[in-house]
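To whoever is covering the structure queue this week,

Two jobs came back overnight. Logging them here so there's a record in the thread.

Job A:
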Amino acid sequence: MKKKADNTQDRYVIIMAGGKGERFWPVSREKTPKQLLALLDRKSFLQQAVERVLPLVPIKNIFIITNEVQAPEVRKQLPKLPKDNVVAEPIGRDTCAAVTLGAALVGARSTTGVMAVLPADHVIPEEKKFQTVLNDCFDLASRGQAIVTIGIKPTEPATGYGYIHVGEPLPPPQGVKPYKTTFFRAERFVEKPNFDRALEYLNSGQYRWNAGMFIWSFVTVTEGLQKHQPEMFAACQRWFNAAKTPAKLNKVLAKEYPDIKKISIDYALMEHAQNVIVADGAFEWDDLGSWNALSRHLKADPEGNCAVADFIHVDAARNIIYDARGKDRRTPIAVVGLRDSILVQTDDAVLLAHKSQSQKVKELVKKLSELPQYKKLV
């Protein structure tokens, strides 16, 4: 492998920010989904995602891939980001299309560029540790043909994540100072397992959660697409040719995107590729998938209630109470005898759900969207 000087100018970050965040209804709406909300901080998840990578990548090299409904709010939240670096997909086509578009944007700037593809809505409290891992991943990806993904060591037998079976730790490339991060060869990708299998994976120590974070050079990802997804590769070439002129790119995307295959990058590329390396994500991480997950980041009272609200109760336990109204508009939320529930109050809606059913909030949003009188709440 060739020795390469560190050059942040040739590093790029693509942040995927087009999700709907339906499981966080009624706070999350189509125009302001989860990644654009400040649920745990004064800053939104997207703003935090950008700030986390700024020490490693110049702001002009950060792209946000979102959709047309959310693009105005994304630009408003990130005023220092060049306007044309916010790119709106005309229609959602899963992560492979978004990665392909990201590769075209990077390639149009630099065919020797190395890019990280990161989600917009993760909670990573240990920023310095994350930056160390990402920095090592950038360096490794810049040296050869590796597809690098960051795997998170499981802390529980979670059934909502994909898993990666990792092999033996890899030595650093020759002539390189040893990395602070441990890297493994990826043996195989495993879809979301049942509880017993997830427990087995957790206990074995040989599995990592697939956090959807990828780092590769422009050359490596386009070669991967050419080999495993030739149609996507052809689209990447067309978008690459149009990407230097934003208006031209938008026109091409509007015409072509609806017919692009809807497939995740995991199915399309990661599960087929033989050159995948897993970085040990040795930092605290959470993918806030539903209201339940929020309680991991809020202080509980002696009865286990987690509240962001003017909350008073008698004999209530293990509830999540969230008042999203402005502090001047909040009224007391009084609860008696409620257990293991989620109560969310906004200016125009209230959600009450049992914690065990929190994933079904998505079904509720679908139902609301189908009823004319409630459509405006979605």
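Job B:
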Amino acid sequence: MHSYAIGDIHGHLDLLQAAHARIAADMAVHGPATVVHVGDLVDRGPDSRGVIDHLMRGIDRGEDWVVLKGNHDRMFSRFLRAPEEPEPGLRPDLSWLDPRLGGAETLASYGLRNAGDRPVKAVHEEALAKVPQAHRDFLKERPVWHRIGEVVFVHAGIRPGFAMDKQTETDLVWIRQPFLEDRRDHGFLVVHGHTAIPAPHHHGNRVNIDSSAAYGGPLTAVAIEGRDVFLLTEAGRVRLLPDPG
């Protein structure tokens, strides 16, 4: 059994389309399989709306795509529902419209201008008018984890030592420590994003595939066979070997 995963997209439709093309080329050799997107569809990049449209259209035409919820997707949904409501996991001095988080870029893709420089109430009212209900429903309905065989896919990671049915959504979309430092075998390989690094990295018990597309880096796509992970390149598969440390 094999599967595929795509890292944090952050509004980069062109990178997402290229990742899907690499996966299609691999499927032509190895056969079709589920493609899991590990979340953070929106924010920072130029075309969050286009990313959501692309994923919705693919699912509607029958593509075997799983799209998980990331913390940025949840912040977008929360802003649309109740912009004054705090986001668990986010520092209290920040809001989704802070320039460091990229919410204004997401709203710009829906035609809202200068969202970070205007009163929140006015921005929220305009967002409700311009963000299609279908997009709002799609984001709200995203699952927060998915398992295929020996692999659990999740946006941020898991709370070590807790069964998957005991995990909180906030941990699954926000956690860093103690997950990133934990070297134990979780009973499955965890494939995740959320923590941006220069290139995908296999830590033995987890694989981080957030290769910093939000900050000008590439968008990683991997193929997974059992617990073997392969980076998909224009030239084909390159095996990601576990870190011996």
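Note for Job B: The first helix runs from residue 13 to 30.

Please reply-all if you pick these up so we don't duplicate work.
Q.
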